[in-house]
Specification:
By secondary structure, this protein is an all-alpha fold. The chain has 2 domains: 160 residues, Butyryl-CoA Dehydrogenase, subunit A, domain 3 (Up-down Bundle), CATH 1.20.140; 204 residues, no CATH class. It has 16 helices and no strands. Helix 9 packs antiparallel against helix 15, helix 10 packs antiparallel against helix 15 and helix 13 runs antiparallel to helix 15.
């Protein structure tokens, strides 16, 4: 049964039960599926342009178009990975906190699709694009629900002190890594099958406690990367000040808009990072290990993108945070490949029962 306060809140959102909430989120999800198909179809323009360049004998330009297409395909894969989180969590929505988590993940995925279908991206007006307009309506509706939840919680709970950012301190992790060399206190760590033990030993671990400890090391490196990414935003503020000194208000506004967009990206990273934190202490089998490694790898890639030379305009060779994130990615990839080789398809095939007309091989969460 729903708690009285939860029931009061979902009624404020327009629902009578959490079953209705789940039904509505599934409807929002179906709209996103259509948007994803549209985003993928839009990639044909790069292929077509590459063919035109090849006909003209401009091979280098053709290669650039295909490289653009590949980057966009990676973005769609990123969407798919996050979409998987929603599919996994929808069925668990039985209280307000779970509802809020799924709505946040849904909003994030919806925004990814809006970005891919925007006029800035495609070069075409969005007014007549039904998929884009439907996603806009999605965003408005999700925002309405999240704002109601936030206002309700603020009214009914005492404010808690906020950390500097969403990356917690070591003590906030709920796990004492200083005692990692002691025998496991939780029997579930000892309940490991011989096949799983063989697999994590192939990765270089003797227990899932060691796995968790290693992932936490990745987390600490990512924390440093996030601080660096946030610090890099100062350049927009500084450039805006320079423009203002020269009386160029419009250019200054553009710099501040760029900064705001980047801040939103960092907030998105924090949301995804919370998925890692939420799952980290649950890692007691291979499937959970695989889930957390995939979520960690995704967050790591977001940070790499923010610290890349393409983003900052500066070479990455001397940037310690960037190089550490590269090493993170290599090591995480090593583990995920070992798991995929030994445990291929066991988790993925069940996960996509409700995702029609898609090739499961493209969704290696």
């Amino acid at each position: 049964m729903e708690a009285e306060s939860d029931l009061e809140l979902i009624k404020e959102c327009g629902f009578s039960s959490f079953d209705e909430v789940v039904q509505r989120i599934n409807e929002l999800v179906n709209i996103m599926r259509v948007g994803r198909i549209k985003a993928e179809k839009n990639l044909d323009r790069f292929q077509n342009q590459a063919k035109i360049y090849l006909k003209d004998g401009q091979r280098d330009k053709a290669k650039k178009e295909l490289a653009k297409k590949k980057k966009k395909e990676e973005k769609i894969k990123t969407f798919d990975n996050q979409f998987n989180v929603i599919l996994e969590k929808i069925k668990e929505v039985k209280n307000i906190n779970q509802m809020q988590q799924v709505l946040n993940a849904t909003k994030y995925c919806n925004n990814l699709l809006l970005a891919e279908l925007s006029q800035e991206e495609t070069g075409e007006p969005t007014e007549g694009v039904k998929e884009y307009q439907d996603l806009l309506e999605n965003d408005k509706e999700i925002t309405k629900y999240t704002e109601i939840i936030i206002a309700f919680k603020k009214k009914n709970t005492q404010p808690k002190p906020k950390p500097v950012n969403n990356f917690p301190s070591d003590n906030d992790m709920g796990y004492n890594f200083n005692q990692m060399n002691k025998p496991p206190s939780n029997d579930s760590y000892n309940n490991i099958s011989s096949s799983e033990l063989d697999l994590i030993r192939e990765c270089g671990f003797n227990s899932f406690e060691e796995v968790v400890k290693k992932i936490y090391e990745f987390v600490k490196i990512m924390k440093a990367g996030r601080i660096k990414a946030e610090k890099n935003l100062d350049r927009y503020q500084n450039q805006a000040k320079n423009y203002l000194k020269e009386g160029q208000k419009d250019l200054a506004k553009k710099e501040l808009i760029k900064k705001k967009k980047k801040e939103e990206k960092i907030k998105s990273l924090d949301t995804q990072f919370n998925v890692v934190l939420e799952k980290l202490n649950e890692v007691k089998n291979i499937t959970q290990m695989q889930q957390v490694l995939n979520a960690t790898k995704y967050c790591n890639k977001l940070l790499l993108a923010e610290l890349s030379q393409e983003e900052t305009g500066e070479p990455t060779e001397g940037v310690k945070e960037y190089q550490d994130l590269i090493e993170n990615d290599k090591e995480i990839t090593k583990y995920t490949k070992i798991i995929a080789k030994n445990n291929k398809g066991e988790y993925n095939n069940n996960q996509f029962a409700n995702y029609p007309n898609d090739n499961i091989d493209n969704y290696n969460i």
